[in-house]
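queue> pop job 88
queue> type: inverse folding (structure -> sequence)
queue> payload:
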């Protein structure tokens, strides 16, 4: 839900044209760098669209407050009441969720104020998004390995080099590319995507990190703007849960029009 959300919104508008857009949004946590793109997502302003916001850690009304709070005065010129799309807010706990055949599961990460990783399984493939996470907590490190096990794509928090982390960044809630490589090997993932780059990192620095990481895990790439990944279906697919057109009814829900 960062600044790239604006580009995604424009792309969806071009793809759908006048047709309504229905989207499912799963938030990992509520630090500014992970929610600041929401007010700049054009489809939220169009009547007829509908978006389902989900959170593991907050109740539905708290989730709504966290999402809408960044647009209250004096932080933003208008509030969310100007948005024409229907907005639904759910707290889902740690239960698996089936969205039209795509099954999502989650686990807790080690990060200030909390964070979750998500695993998405659909059409025989799987992707794990695990950021923000600071290694070093045995329980949370095991959570990461468990949810990443056998994933086709593993996106991991690699903000720091090992030297940066040991010198000044312990306790900041982020990890290293070395830890990402270690987890990728142990969990048997298909592709490692290094993510959450330090803002001071330039392309030359990232290329060097990727070269080092590939010595230990060859199928490693660095996340970049516009990166698209193909996830080939597995030969043997896992049995799927019954399809549903919306989140399970037992979830706590709060709707806004």
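queue> result:
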């Amino acid at each position: 839900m960062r600044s790239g959300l604006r580009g995604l919104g424009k792309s969806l508008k071009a793809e759908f044209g006048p047709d309504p857009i229905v989207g499912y949004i799963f938030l990992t946590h509520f630090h500014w760098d992970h929610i600041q793109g929401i007010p700049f997502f054009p489809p939220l302003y169009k009547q007829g669209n509908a978006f389902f916001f989900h959170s593991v850690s907050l109740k539905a009304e708290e989730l709504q407050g966290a999402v809408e709070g960044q647009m209250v005065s004096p932080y933003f010129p208008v509030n969310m009441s100007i948005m024409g799309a229907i907005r639904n807010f759910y707290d889902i706990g740690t239960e698996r969720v089936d969205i039209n055949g795509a099954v999502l599961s989650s686990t807790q990460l080690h990060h200030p104020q909390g964070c979750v990783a998500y695993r998405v399984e659909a059409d025989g493939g799987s992707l794990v998004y695990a950021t923000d996470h600071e290694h070093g907590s045995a329980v949370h490190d095991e959570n990461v390995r468990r949810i990443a096990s056998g994933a086709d794509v593993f996106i991991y928090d690699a903000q720091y080099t090992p030297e940066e982390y040991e010198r000044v960044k312990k306790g900041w809630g982020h990890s290293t590319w070395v830890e990402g490589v270690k987890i990728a090997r142990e969990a048997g993932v298909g592709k490692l995507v290094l993510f959450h780059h330090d803002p001071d990192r330039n392309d030359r620095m990232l290329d060097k990190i990727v070269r080092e990481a590939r010595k230990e895990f060859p199928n490693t790439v660095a996340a970049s703007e516009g990166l698209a990944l193909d996830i080939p279906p597995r030969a043997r697919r896992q049995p799927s849960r019954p399809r549903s057109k919306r989140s399970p009814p037992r979830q706590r829900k709060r709707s806004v029009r």
